[in-house]
């Protein structure tokens, strides 16, 4: 399914397609309520019909929203809508990141050592935050790391898996994002 510019999903107006992956497509859009650019990740319709895949997509939204870290993409909304054709659309609304993936940057050649070290530290900070919440990303690759003017942003938590045996060491009452801790 390709969404044409001008298509609407709730209050979001599609501007352009910016990428695709195994689970669907990503579009640049405008949040018409707040007047800001956003990225909308749309679950492919043939996958949305599979309850297991749909649950994984919903879990990705909950995972991202539970993290709140400067080096992890921010989730603004999750939704479901119907196109004018009647086709159902499941989507996640994320911050729009202006930049390029680490994969694209590496395709132009090696990074200077000082820059590579800054990026590695930021990636490790993001992964540490996820691990402290009991999550393993499971799809870390250059294509899932975005380089922006503000630094690194880790993307695509679609394969993230909660580890039920981990509780944040700094807060013994904190639970992993999908369970509660018995007291």
Describe this structure in words.
The protein folds into two domains: 88 residues, Phosphorylase Kinase, domain 1, CATH 3.30.200.20; 64 residues, Transferase(Phosphotransferase) domain 1 (Transferase(Phosphotransferase), domain 1, Orthogonal Bundle). Helices cover 25% and strands 32% of the residues. Strand 5 and strand 6 form a beta hairpin. The protein starts with 7 loop residues before the first strand and ends in a 21-residue tail after the last strand. It is built from four helices and eleven strands, in the order ββββααβββααββββ. Strands 1-2-3-4-6-5 form a six-stranded antiparallel beta sheet. Strands 7-9-10 form a three-stranded antiparallel beta sheet. It is an alpha+beta fold and 183 residues long.
List the helices and strands and how they pair.
Elements: E1 8-9, E2 12-20, E3 24-31, E4 36-43, H1 45-48, H2 51-67, E5 75-82, E6 88-95, E7 99-101, H3 102-106, H4 113-132, E8 135-136, E9 145-148, E10 151-154, E11 161-162
Antiparallel strand pairs: 1-2, 2-3, 3-4, 4-6, 5-6, 7-9, 8-11, 9-10
């Amino acid at each position: 399914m390709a969404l044409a510019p001008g298509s609407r999903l709730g209050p979001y107006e599609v501007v352009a397609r910016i990428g695709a992956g195994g689970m669907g497509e990503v579009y640049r859009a405008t949040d018409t309520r707040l007047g800001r650019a956003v990225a909308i990740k749309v679950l492919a319709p043939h996958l949305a019909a599979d309850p297991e895949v749909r649950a994984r997509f919903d879990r990705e939204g909950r995972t991202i929203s539970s993290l709140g870290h400067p080096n992890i993409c921010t989730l603004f909304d999750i939704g479901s809508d119907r196109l004018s054709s009647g086709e159902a659309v499941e989507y996640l609304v994320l911050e729009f990141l202006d930049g390029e993936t680490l994969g694209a940057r590496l395709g132009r050649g090696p990074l200077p050592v000082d820059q590579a070290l800054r990026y590695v530290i930021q990636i490790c900070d993001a992964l540490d935050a996820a691990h402290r919440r009991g999550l393993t990303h499971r799809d870390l690759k250059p294509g899932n790391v975005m380089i922006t003017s503000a630094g690194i942003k880790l993307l695509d938590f679609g394969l993230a898996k909660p580890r039920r045996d981990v509780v944040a060491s700094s807060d013994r009452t904190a639970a992993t994002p999908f369970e509660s801790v018995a007291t």
